[in-house]
Structure formats: structure tokens, C-alpha cells
């Protein structure tokens, strides 16, 4: 899983931080961002809830195919 926040769309509602505080934070301007090292979606159920809760759909959650050996 890979998560990102479109900061051009984000309005700083903070719903993502409430839903998944171990993955999201807000910067000095109040805009949401993914914490460093958490782009892989640590706590995936909470990340999906955060994306769903975003009032402007600024969070993208992409599933990544795992390598098969």
C-alpha cells in the first residue's frame, strides 16, 4: 500500500490525523501530510478510514502488487 496527500486539495480538516495519528500529521499551516516512513500504510485499516473520512478526498491509497517468487 502507498499513501499520499494532495496538499493542493487538502483543507486541513484533520480527520485523517484523528483516524490514523500514527500515519498522518498536520504541518504548521494545518495541512495534512504523511509522517516520514509511514508512506507504506502502516495500520492499513485506519489509513483507509482516514481516506474515507477526508471531506475533500485529498488522500490517495494505492495498493501495490507484491513481488511473487
TrEMBL record:
<keyword id="KW-0003">3Fe-4S</keyword>
<keyword id="KW-0813">Transport</keyword>
<feature type="domain" description="4Fe-4S ferredoxin-type">
    <location>
        <begin position="1"/>
        <end position="29"/>
    </location>
</feature>
<keyword id="KW-0249">Electron transport</keyword>
<dbReference type="Pfam" id="PF13459">
    <property type="entry name" value="Fer4_15"/>
</dbReference>
<keyword id="KW-0408">Iron</keyword>
<comment type="function">
    <text>Ferredoxins are iron-sulfur proteins that transfer electrons in a wide variety of metabolic reactions.</text>
</comment>
<keyword id="KW-0411">Iron-sulfur</keyword>
<dbReference type="GO" id="GO:0005506">
    <property type="term" value="F:iron ion binding"/>
</dbReference>
<dbReference type="InterPro" id="IPR001080">
    <property type="entry name" value="3Fe4S_ferredoxin"/>
</dbReference>
<protein>
    <recommendedName>
        <fullName>Ferredoxin</fullName>
    </recommendedName>
</protein>
<dbReference type="GO" id="GO:0051538">
    <property type="term" value="F:3 iron, 4 sulfur cluster binding"/>
</dbReference>
<dbReference type="InterPro" id="IPR051269">
    <property type="entry name" value="Fe-S_cluster_ET"/>
</dbReference>
<dbReference type="InterPro" id="IPR017896">
    <property type="entry name" value="4Fe4S_Fe-S-bd"/>
</dbReference>
<dbReference type="GO" id="GO:0009055">
    <property type="term" value="F:electron transfer activity"/>
</dbReference>
<keyword id="KW-0479">Metal-binding</keyword>
Amino acid at each position: 500500500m502507498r499513501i499520499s496527500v494532495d496538499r493542493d486539495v487538502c483543507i486541513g480538516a484533520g480527520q485523517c490525523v484523528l483516524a490514523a495519528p500514527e500515519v498522518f500529521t498536520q504541518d504548521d499551516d494545518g495541512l495534512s501530510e504523511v509522517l516520514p516512513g509511514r508512506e507504506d500504510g502502516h495500520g492499513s485499516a485506519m489509513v483507509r478510514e482516514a481516506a474515507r473520512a477526508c471531506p475533500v478526498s485529498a488522500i490517495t491509497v494505492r495498493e501495490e502488487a507484491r513481488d511473487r517468487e
